[in-house]
Amino acid sequence: MAHLYLVLADLIVCIHIAFVVFVIGGGLLVWRWRWVAWLHLPAATWGAAVELTGWMCPLTPLENALRVRAGATAYRGDFVAHYLLPVLYPADLTREVQFGLAALVIAVNVVAYWWVWRPNRKW
Q1: Which residues, including other chains, have CB under 8 Å from residue 16's CB and lie 6 or more apart?
Q2: What letters, b where the CB count within 10 A reaches 16 and e where it falls short, cover 71-92?
Q3: H/E element holding 102?
Q4: What is the 3-state secondary structure (H, E, C) of 3-59?
């Protein structure tokens, strides 16, 4: 059963990374599919709010609880833990870096949405 909890924890990490990628670049999908804006705008707002306020994403405690339930105390030995976790949980993450990440999310998406809904656009 412990193996199942580790697999679920790794799945949560993959979902978390996919969400982060969507938050950062989802505005680019709106160029192709305008309906994605209905999903992306709330996600980008949440992502920026988490970075600006220092809140913890609810996926993090869920992942940690699954790892504890599996009896794991550290990330080691698997691809997800070794390569993907440092992307979400860098060791040198500071408030300044978080503000920079929030600014990046906002800037990328403002440009993407401006491009989609810019004035004088030829349809």
Answers
A1: 57, 59, 60, 63, 88
A2: ebeebeeeebbeebbeebeeee
A3: helix 95-116
A4: HHHHHHHHHHHHHHHHHHHHHHHHHHHHHHCHHHHHHHHHHHHHHHHHHHHCCCCCH
Name the one residue in this structure whose structure tokens are 């906002």. 106
Global model pTM greater than 0.85? no
How many C-beta neighbours within 10 Å does residue 15 have?
13
Each residue of 37-76: pLDDT tens digit?
Answer: 999 999 999 988 887 887 878 888 888 888 888 887 645 4
Q: Tell the residue number behind the tokens 């938050």, with chain if given.
A: 23
Report the distance separating Cα 54 and Cα 75, nearest Å.
23
> Token digits for 22?
């969507």
* Calculated CA dihedral for residues 24, 97, 87, 51, nearest 10 degrees: -50
